[in-house]
Design brief:
With 274 residues, the protein is α+β, with helices and mostly antiparallel strands. The protein is built from eight helices and five strands. The protein folds into two domains: 128 residues, Cytochrome c oxidase, subunit III, four-helix bundle (Four Helix Bundle (Hemerythrin (Met), subunit A), Up-down Bundle), CATH 1.20.120; 80 residues, no CATH class.
């Protein structure tokens, strides 16, 4: 028994079944991300202060270019099938998968940087942010104090803080910041650390939003890349038996990929630039 309208268009919609299905699915995705973006706007408008400069804008820019390029290659892959050029399809579809992998690798570097970036408070009230030598992953005061680790001190590299004047300088001095001195590496005894916390989603509302939105987007990237990869690999055998149906499947996967790219086009300026 053949399922109708997998290739030919339905008379009532003018679209084949898979295309109707993907548009309905994308409508639900718009509602999901729309709710999350709306929550972000409400939380930011209602906050008196909002963190700035916590994200790596150059890496975010590179990832934006990577996804835009992947949108182009996924269209070229579909167009190649329409032109009966299977070799070009394999090339463009393969490049799309590589670009998706590149995006995820860059995003993993961003995540690791956040989870190895620390805020530390000493017993005397001094507060600093920076990195611990060796980049331990998400350490806490309890972790550092474990006897089996045998740690008595850490080598801390404070974030550079520009020199300031007036009240701002007084505020920095109260938190242990002294302009250019923040570039120096500090040796801090573990016994003097009151609290240690990485810049994960638990650190602030902003970082919770960042990890939620970019993490959900990353899951969509992985899911889309797996489908595109399947159509590039084992699924491409359908070209010999039913080329039009393969072309339709590639088009549907491309529509989802365009949505994933569009979401990032909104995420990048909202989280990284504003």
């Amino acid at each position: 028994m053949d399922i109708p309208y997998t290739v030919q268009a339905r008379p009532d919609t003018g679209l084949y079944n898979a295309k109707v299905g993907i548009w309905l699915f994308l409508a639900s995705e718009v509602m999901l991300f729309g709710a999350l973006f709306s929550s972000y706007v409400l939380l930011r408008v209602g906050s008196e202060t909002w963190p700035q400069g916590l994200l790596n804008v150059p890496l975010g820019t590179i990832n934006t270019v990577v996804l835009i390029c992947s949108s182009i290659t996924v269209v070229l892959a579909w167009a190649s099938l329409k032109l009966k050029d299977f070799g070009s399809y394999k090339l463009y579809q393969g490049v799309t998968v590589l670009l998706a992998a590149t995006f995820m690798v860059i995003k993993s570097f961003e995540y690791r940087d956040k989870l190895t970036h620390y805020w530390v408070r000493l017993n005397d009230g001094t507060e600093m942010t920076g990195h611990i030598e060796g980049k331990p992953f998400n350490w806490t005061k309890a972790t550092l104090s474990k006897p089996e680790l045998g740690l008595t001190e850490i080598h801390f590299h404070p974030d550079p803080v520009p020199a300031a004047t007036g009240a701002h300088a007084d505020s920095e001095a109260a938190h242990g910041h002294e302009g250019a001195a923040a570039h120096e590496s500090l040796t801090i005894p573990v016994s003097e650390i009151s609290r240690l916390e990485s810049f994960g989603p638990w650190r602030s509302t902003y970082l919770a939003i960042y990890f939620t939105l970019t993490g959900l987007h990353a899951l969509h990237v992985v899911g889309g890349a797996l489908v595109i990869g399947f159509l590039w690999g084992p699924g491409s055998r359908m070209w010999r038996s039913d080329p039009e149906r393969l072309t339709n499947r590639v088009e549907v996967s491309g529509l989802f990929w365009h949505f994933v790219d569009l979401v990032w086009i909104f995420l990048f300026p909202v989280l990284y630039l504003l």
